[in-house]
Specification:
44% of the residues lie in helices and 25% in strands. By secondary structure, the chain is α+β, with helices and mostly antiparallel strands. Strand 3, helix 1 and strand 4 form a beta-alpha-beta unit. Helix 3 packs across helix 4 and helix 5 packs across helix 6. The protein starts with a strand and ends with a strand. Bound molecules: (R)-mevalonate. The site of (R)-mevalonate has 12 residues, from helix 4 and helix 5.
Length: 313
């Protein structure tokens, strides 16, 4: 039996902008997806998805998940016409848009194949194979999600628009920073939302350039603020990033509402995270007690799932 796991993630700065080569900062969270590979006597492969998920999530992602697995098998040269196996997906990461569930499952699957077939892949090669899997979920992934899912921790990431390997570095803050994650319960299609931004960008490049110029300043200031552990500044910049994502038209009423509730209940800053138009938001909390207070307020505001986590160590 081969096993593997991949971490969930929260993007602190830079969803969508990262697709166009701007830097992003994301944190691996402690929840994981696990994959367990068992050989079977028949030929072919089966994926059994036992992950906890937002209503409708798995149905919406079904075809993409199939395409993703085929991409991974092709990339790793694994042919199931003369042997067979079943992969079971499980773990404590609840599938919701924005939490990196697709990337976490790709990384877990690659690691289970690596384990079972003794492929000898190192993390860099696991990440490359998971990136091929991510292409099944959306044609042009930046590579941010699979990188954070593979390595965990807090990551500064820049995509190479020339097709080369991304530049990324792990950031250690030396202290845990509290984060609350809440889901709108709406499953977004990354391929559709990224595609919509692309069309708008192509029709109005000046519109995109002016927003991304402002974002570029936010992410660089965000990196400094994180290194200095300047929580008020980080929060302010997260709020600014949310505004820019609203301008990019990827937020929505439900996300804006949860962001407002979090800010009114003690969050130092809050923003949508991931694809948007549904999915998740994140809120920065000054301490654990306030994180609980924010989480309770978000639950009352009808967030469909709420999780307290931390990053930075
Ligand atoms: C999705 O988690 C993040 C996006 O920026 C897409 C990507 O980076 O590939 C929206």
């Amino acid at each position: 039996m081969g096993t593997g796991s991949g971490k969930g993630k929260a993007i602190l700065f830079g969803e969508h902008f990262v697709v166009y080569g701007l830097p992003a900062i994301a944190a691996g969270i402690s929840s994981v997806t696990t994959a367990k590979l068992t050989r079977v006597r028949s030929f072919g492969h089966t994926l059994v998805d036992n992950r906890l998920a937002m209503p409708g999530y798995k149905e919406k992602k079904y075809d993409e998940q199939k395409a993703s697995l085929e991409n991974i098998l092709k990339h790793l040269n694994i042919d199931t016409t003369r042997m067979g196996f079943q992969i079971d997906l499980e773990g404590d990461l609840v599938c919701a848009s924005g939490i990196g569930a697709s990337a976490a499952s790709c990384v877990a699957i690659v690691r289970s194949l690596n384990d079972e077939f003794k492929l000898g892949l190192n993390d860099e090669q696991v990440n490359e194979a998971a990136y091929e899997g991510e292409k099944g979920y959306h044609g042009t992934p930046s590579g941010l999600d699979n990188t954070v899912s593979t390595y965990g921790g807090l990551v500064w990431f820049e995509r190479d628009l020339g097709g080369g390997p991304p530049k990324f570095e792990k950031m250690k803050l030396g202290k845990a920073v509290n984060l609350v994650i809440a889901s709108t319960g709406i499953t977004a299609s990354t391929i559709e939302v990224v595609g919509a931004v692309k069309i708008r960008k192509e029709t109005d490049p000046k519109w995109f350039d002016s927003i991304s110029e402002k974002y570029n300043q936010v992410v660089h200031e965000g990196k400094d603020a994180l290194i200095q552990l300047d929580l008020p500044k980080i929060g302010k910049l997260m709020n600014k990033n949310h505004e820019l994502l609203q301008e990019l038209t990827v937020s929505c009423e439900e996300l804006d509402h949860l962001v407002k509730v979090a800010r009114e209940n003690g969050a130092i800053g809050a923003k949508m995270t991931g694809t948007g138009r549904g999915g998740n938001m994140i809120a920065l909390a000054p301490d654990e007690a306030t994180a609980k207070q924010i989480a309770e307020a978000l639950e009352k505001a009808r967030a469909v799932g709420v999780w307290i986590t931390s990053f930075g160590l």
